[in-house]
Amino acid sequence: MNKDVCNCGLLACKEVNTKDQENRFTLLPLAYAENSLEPYISEKTVRFHYGKHLAAYIDNTNKLKAGTPFDDLPLHEIIVKSSGGLFNNAAQVFNHYFYFEAFHQTGLRMPAGKLLHLLEKNFGSFEQFKEKFTLSGMTLFGSGWVWLVQDGEKLEIMALPNAENPLKEHKYPLLTMDVWEHAYYLDTQNARAKYIENFWQVIDWKVIEKRMR
């Protein structure tokens, strides 16, 4: 495996990129119980979002990479180097793992230390960061992802459509929010604002801190 396989922000990158005997990515078990994010994200949403949507993206990635120069690459290299259907599916695999990795209802509820310092330095305060991140999620038209990325002491919010990923632009991710409707429709129907409000309740800021460079 490439020596830089874990240099992509995903703490479980090594495990995510471990393949079976047929060189296929496999769905990792969720790190917490499907109902542990309730009442903010329901067991039903987690079961379908992680167990069905993510699994389908993994299956499609395996089919599209088979027999190509991308077959032996880790996900983050596929994302950087591919396009079209392979990029869309591989990016969605990475994006979803990155998203779910940051959740736990019993995790650290507020950023601290260097992370808090950089949020305050770049956005004025933690609350101002949340407001800007929330606004980016509310105003992103259609499906996509909102990202917090790091470049040294600089933090930046990126709102990207569809499966787009900051790694493609050589940006280092710390946090992401899925604003595809399948992330919230079972819980809040079309109320994206309520979903985003709930999203802030389940972030484990210790995970985000561990991702920092």
SSE layout:
Layout: H1 13-16, H2 43-65, H3 75-81, H4 84-101, H5 113-123, H6 126-139, E1 144-151, E2 154-161, E3 172-178, H7 185-188, H8 192-199, H9 205-211
Helix pairs in contact: 2-4, 3-4, 5-6
Structural class: mainly alpha
Strand content: 5-15%
Determine the CATH superfamily of the largest domain: Iron/manganese superoxide dismutase, C-terminal domain
Number of helical regions: 9
Number of domains: 2
| CATH topology assignment of the largest domain | minor pseudopilin epsh fold
What is the alpha-carbon Rg in Å? 16 Å
Main attributes of the structure:
disordered N terminus; globular; Helix Hairpins; 213 residues; 45% helix
